[in-house]
From TrEMBL:
InterPro entries: AB_hydrolase_fold (IPR029058), CMBL (IPR042946), Dienelactn_hydro (IPR002925)
This protein's name: Carboxymethylenebutenolidase homolog
Domain Dienelactone hydrolase: from-to ranges: 30-244
Gene Ontology CC: cytosol
Sequence similarity: Belongs to the dienelactone hydrolase family.
Keyword Cytoplasm annotated: yes
Gene Ontology MF terms in the entry: hydrolase activity
Keywords: Cytoplasm
Localisation per UniProt entry: Cytoplasm, Cytosol
Length: 245
């Protein structure tokens, strides 16, 4: 069961010392990190951050990884100027903090980002990935946004949208076997509901021995036993995007 003293699945894990190859831009009322490949492309991916916000180096590292694979990547500030969670914050205040940061209320910002990608970056085929809070946001978007091609939800908090499974677009769900905050029972129930209600292609994959955040908050060079799964998860994510974008 989840540790009730730590109500969110996020733990900072290994914070990368990483500066990023992209740049910060202003997109209407939203700040965003944007990374573009050297060759022109009409493919883009929106990267939705976890509770630690759009400036977390780990998230920018993944955005740049997408760019290295030929995608325009954009990580907007979906908290829209509100402070991201800090490891030093009191977890007793987390529920109140979360009330003003609803993963199901990002549609206005997503519309702004889609407009920017299409008009300023020439993107025509756009997908989305997200981590934890952002993974739940991906599920929300896959349920309702007609303008996205596909999504990858990485250890998205199932309880946020556990009663909704009629996806509009192909969606890949990544989970960790030893995730303290997303029990395997929840994952099994999600699979059951998807099987009953989902009419598009989806996949649910659980990676052995891994903990929450393994794909973007574990460094393969200092977690040698986890390296194969970190690399596999990242490769699976890229392959899914390549298939549907």
């Amino acid at each position: 069961m989840a540790n009730e003293l730590r109500p969110c699945p996020c733990d900072i894990g290994d914070r990368f010392d990483y500066g990023g190859r992209g740049q910060e831009v202003q997109v209407e009322h939203i700040k965003a990190y944007v990374s573009k490949p050297s060759a022109s492309t009409d493919k883009a991916v929106i990267v939705i951050h976890d509770i630690f916000g759009w400036q977390l180096p780990n998230t920018r590292y993944v955005a740049d990884m997408l760019t290295a694979n030929g995608y325009i990547a954009i990580c907007p500030d979906f908290f829209v100027g509100q402070e991201a969670w800090k490891p030093s914050d009191d977890w007793a205040s987390f529920d109140d903090w979360l009330k003003t940061r609803d993963a199901g209320k990002i549609d206005k910002e997503v519309d702004v980002v889609l407009k920017y990608l299409k008009e300023q970056c020439g993107a025509k085929k756009i997908g989305v990935i997200g981590f934890c809070w952002g993974g739940a946001a991906v599920q929300h978007l896959m349920l309702k946004n007609p303008h996205l091609k596909t999504g990858v939800s990485l250890y998205g908090v199932i309880k946020f949208f556990d009663d909704r499974s009629s996806l509009l677009h192909p969606t890949f769900f990544i989970f960790a076997e030893k995730d303290e905050y997303i029990p395997l029972e929840q994952v099994a129930l999600l699979e059951q509901k998807l099987k009953q209600n989902c009419k598009v292609h989806y996949e649910v994959k659980t990676y052995p021995g891994q903990t929450h955040g393994f794909i973007h908050r574990k460094r393969e060079d200092i977690n040698p036993q986890d390296k194969p799964y970190i690399e596999e998860g990242r490769k699976d994510m890229i392959n899914w995007l390549n298939k549907y974008i």
